[in-house]
Amino acid sequence: MIDLVRILRETFVAQAEHHPTLDSTNSQAARCAARRPRELPLLVVADEQTGGRGRGGKRWWTGSGSLAFSLLVDPQTVGADRSRSPLVALASAVAVAETLRPLLPGRPLGIHWPNDVAVDGKKLCGILVDVLADRRHVIGIGVNTNSTMAEAPAELQATTATVRDLSGREHDQTDMLVALLRQLDQQFATLRRDSAAVAAAADRLCTQRGQRLTLRWENRTASGICRGIAPDGAILLETPAGVERFYSGTTGPQNP
User: Fold this and answer.
1) Which residues, other chains included, contact 14 with Cβ-Cβ below 8 Å and sequence gap of 6+?
2) Structure pTM?
3) Is 26 helix (H, G, I), strand (E, B) or coil?
């Protein structure tokens, strides 16, 4: 059970709500935004999501025991400059990686650009950032904490991991959420002050460096060797035309 009183006392969250079941924490946060809450950040946590969303409208699996939440924040919280918006997901991913590192000692935690945290090449966390019309951000984070891959859909079992399976034990969800929210607060402060430092941290954690990737966005593709993450949050691909920057899309191994 999530202890909201403790969350409000120990983190930068101003308002919080917990739901046993929701369609999507991002959708609920957007509904809250329409009511113009007076104090932000606002936290929405759900034990179960029936319609969780990933990038490109993909379904977001939230297994029993996973930690699924969204934050509604003012643009000032993550830096009002529009050019920093691509870095919000990376700042969130860095926060997740730093939170999980002590729980998974020796494991090669990293960031799979643009919005996943992975370990041993398997997805451990997904992040989805929605920017509303008034520039407020909804930051959705799903971490496979106390779920287990034995209960995951068959098509995910080879590409997904959970903290419980890797560490061999369950973890207190409130402890996890407090630690993660504190890390988010730190990373957002860094983003406001020095956005290139966030990009540098993400670049150090980039799991795709040196790999041949195919990037897909809209109806287009680009292929090349990943050269890391640029100071503005773009992924760098070395293509026949040289090293190019890309700001959105999904990445996968380059087709032979």
Assistant:
1) 8, 39, 40, 41, 42
2) 0.92
3) helix
